[in-house]
Amino acid sequence: MLQIVFNDISAAELSRLPTQIQFQLLEALNIQPGDIDDAILSKRFGAIERSGGKKFHRCRAGDHRIYFSVKDGHIVVHRVLHKNTFADFLFRSNLPGGGEDEALSQSNGFWKLIDEGTKTLKMA
């Protein structure tokens, strides 16, 4: 059985959103057990790789983004963020103007944000 696990930070970010948007985000994520394949997830959601081999996928849903990874056959949600947060981050960080995924994957600040979420993860 496929589980979607939210760490404390992503759960708090999701809970601050209106219920209708929460449902839209979860509907956009909609990953089936047969989809837990890196090639399928990368094609469907895109991927951001961190130096050191960490890989996260980004689900775009309206004005929000869900950053998640796969661990032990489960989806682990690390962050749920408004898209304008990323635009502000990219602008403030003076990152190259290439693709957003590439720019984020090269930013230490972004990975620090993800790592903060990972530290709060509590899997049952």
Protein traits:
124 residues, 45% helix, 5-stranded mixed β-sheet, 5 strands
How would you sum up this structure, described in words?
The chain has helices spanning 8-15, 19-29, 38-45, 83-93, 100-105, 108-119; strands spanning 4-6, 47-49, 55-61, 64-71, 74-82. It has six helices and five strands, in the order E-H-H-H-E-E-E-E-H-H-H. Strand 3 and strand 4 form a beta hairpin. It is globular and about 35 Å long. The protein has 124 residues and is an alpha+beta fold.
Please give the largest β-sheet: 5 strands, mixed
Q: Mean pLDDT, rounded to whole units?
A: 78
The share of residues in helices is 40-55%
Shape: globular
* Rg for CA atoms: 14 Å
